[in-house]
Design brief:
Blueprint (H helix, E strand, L loop, with lengths): L9 H10 L1 E4 L3 E7 L6 E6 L6 H18 L7 E7 L8 H14 L8
Parallel strand pairs: 3-4
Antiparallel strand pairs: 1-2, 2-4
Length: 114
């Protein structure tokens, strides 16, 4: 993911978690907050409840890839944080894609297909 589309510092993550609206799914949590930019930025997080570093990094890679697939249809001007839940690593890839799509739709972040 290009650097201009990423949340890179902890203050951005903290701001989104403090001011954003939260949407939950059994595989992930999405937090969205408006920003004053022309693009949406994304951050992915995985806590220690997921396991060791290998499992946390795998969960983050899966969420980033799922996000990348929906980026062309996303609304601009939002900061988004996705937090992996422990069930994510055992889930099928199609379930991960469906979870991310569901969260994005519930948050109103996907533009309608024409």
């Amino acid at each position: 993911m290009n650097r201009r589309y990423r949340l890179t510092n902890s203050t951005d993550f903290k701001r989104v978690r403090r001011t954003g609206k939260t949407y939950a799914h059994p595989l992930a949590i999405l937090i969205a907050s408006p920003n004053d930019r022309t693009v949406s930025r994304f951050g992915v997080s995985a806590g220690r409840a997921l396991g060791n570093a290998v499992r946390r990094n795998r969960a983050k890679r899966r969420l980033r890839e799922a996000l990348r697939r929906y980026m062309p249809r996303m609304v601009s001007g939002r900061d988004i944080v996705l937090i992996a839940r422990p069930a994510l690593n055992e889930a099928e890839w199609s379930d991960v894609l469906n979870a991310v799509a569901t969260l994005l739709k519930r948050a109103g972040l996907l533009e309608e297909e024409s």
